[in-house]
Amino acid sequence: xxxxxxxxxxxxxxxxxxxxxxxxxxxxxxxxxxxxxxxxxxxxxxxxxxxxxxxxxxxxxxxxxxxxxxxxxxxxxxxxxxxxxxxxxxxxxxxxxxxxxxxxxxxxxxxxxxxxxxxxxxxxxxxxxxxxxxxxxxxxxxxxxxxxxxxxxxxxxxxxxxxxxxxxxxxxxxxxxxxxxxxxxxxxxxxxxxxxxxxxxxxxxxxxxxxxxxxxxxxxxxxxxxxxxxxxxxxxxxxxxxxxxxxxxxxxxxxxxxxxxxxxxxxxxxxxxxxxxxxxxxxxxxxxxxxxxxxxxxxxxxxxxxxxxxxxxxxxxxxxxxxxxxxxxxxxxxxxxxxxxxxxxxxxxxxxxxxxxxxxxxxxxxxxxxxxxxxxxxxxxxxxxxxxxxxxxxxxxxxxxxxxxxxxxxxxxxxxxxxxxxxxxxxxxxxxx
Length: 433
What we know:
Layout: E1 11-13, H1 14-17, E2 32-34, E3 49-51, E4 76-81, E5 88-90, E6 92-97, E7 100-105, H2 107-121, E8 134-138, E9 144-150, E10 156-170, E11 186-188, E12 194-196, E13 199-201, E14 206-214, E15 217-223, E16 229-234, E17 251-261, H3 268-282, E18 308-313, E19 329-330, E20 336-342, H4 343-347, E21 365-367, H5 368-373, E22 375-376, E23 381-382, E24 391-392, H6 417-420
Parallel strand pairs: 10-11
Antiparallel strand pairs: 1-2, 3-21, 4-5, 6-7, 7-24, 8-20, 9-10, 9-18, 10-17, 12-13, 14-15, 14-16, 16-17, 18-19, 22-23
């Protein structure tokens, strides 16, 4: 179900969201949701492709169009920024008319819009989709501590672990200090490195330490070569650590002590690949607004280099609801996780790769849009049959006579798993499996 957004949030009803004869739901019909997007569903018969070698004809021609903007529009001239507030002029070629610079909508912008519409009308492929991209979202489920180990063949194995809380602090000065009977507080630098006794430790390093159990909590009393325990260090997100003030404002990182191997779960190798995608997402400035000028989050958490990786997982018979018993991994106890199912799988709506909505790959077997507008694949390419020229402003009124504040735009938030999942009941959601 999708609803058109006309300036006011539309409140729909969960009862109609997924209800069908094949998918009975028991969701409270009084619980409402907001859907500000208008989606066009993919044709259930799949993408339409055909043999381009059978084409005939050599028609040519052109269409002269007039474009009227119905809403405030901006193609920003990013080469000429007037201030730190990001005040942009409209894209232009510095040509003047009646005393003002003429705004221009580049042909490439119009071409993209026209191709997107043409793809919809002709059941063509989704040409700009990254089929290997993972669906990543933050979950509220508390995961379990574990350690990943790679064998001689390059396969990963997941082991249970006992977590020992390690008091650390950021942004302060000084070294580890012991407060009488309490555990030590260790300083972590901006590169996620812990310095102790002249040594530098990072995530994934083996550490000897003295540990103690207090009730249900396991704590690190001191990192020491004479310690009675050995574990793998895990230093968490840099962005949320607090300042060190007289040793009182510390938080907990972790040392994991390895236990027995986890059995009865699948997809560990795939989950490790997606763990790397999660780390990359944390370090994407376009996604992580808290990254700022920092060099990165989870620095040292290098999935490609580490032979043993401290990790949080859901490989528990009670916590894991996946019908295929696949493992989900995260660098945090409560953090992001990546779904096993890929965009490529979702676009194969009829279980036939020739009809998948994934981008075309064969120049001899194309959808209507790729055949007309062209395409580029790893080993194939085809030029466009159409040329779109720039749209040049023809009005007499100076479009710069007053400043305009453009409304913020957004896009669907795939990370909102609760909204896009199938509701089984008020407490549970069906996994994207």
